Request: fold
Amino acid sequence: MASEKNNVPEHVTIIMDGNGRWARQRGQERLYGHKEGVESVRACTELAVEKGIKYLSVFAFSEENWDRPVAEIEGLMQLMLKAITMETPTFQKNGVRFRVIGDFSRLSEKLRKEIDDCMKLTCNNSNLQLIIFLSYSGKWDIVQAANKFMRENSEKEGAGQLQMTAEDLAANLSTAGIPDPDLLIRTSGELRISNYMLWQTAYTEYYFTDILWPDFRKTEFQQALDTYSKRERRFGKV
Ligand code: IPE
Ligand code: IPE
Ligand code: MG
Reply:
């Protein structure tokens, strides 16, 4: 964990927001903005590798986003499928381990298979972990972690007296083993967490920018990293 000033964060997470507005400003359909947003993911991944960031995670689709129009959802899922297929060789070349976290039960079999194949193929790459949060929400994650813990322990002797600790819960989250984010970036000027990693961001530094996600490229990412490097993190201590 980066606990001193001037450090490169170990884990940066991004709420990629503003694709729809970016498209609307250009008189285009929302999907046009989502497509351009993929280019921003590519640029940020490149900079993360260059900077020696170990984990870059991005919020791509929330549990709540399932309530969007079917055409937009289908377009986004198609885009995801295409992007994974296209980017896999680059992941291999740059030593990027690709992972997806979220409620897979709602994804199509085709997409699940593509994700699975890419995760398996890249699982030994160690420069950077690129983690996509897809069909994810923070509350979903905490609830599934609690249920998993109960399932695994309720049959054990003395289960009636069982107490779950913070460590138990963290160990059952879908992010188990991944360090908590040091820096959370949200684009498009919205000042909220929108049910993202609720548990894991307890001590994360926040960075909000008005820039819309399709315009967030290396220069903008570097600016966020520069701001982070000047923050003093205290973790409740003096
Ligand atoms: C972020 O952009 C991408 C997703 C949530 C899938 P939006 O689609 O939310 O774009 P805006 O916020 O409507 O501009
Ligand atoms: C948050 O963006 C989710 C993702 C970026 C995937 P939204 O656009 O869905 O969030 P709200 O609705 O403005 O809070
Ligand atoms: Mg939005």
Summary: The chain has seven helices and six strands.
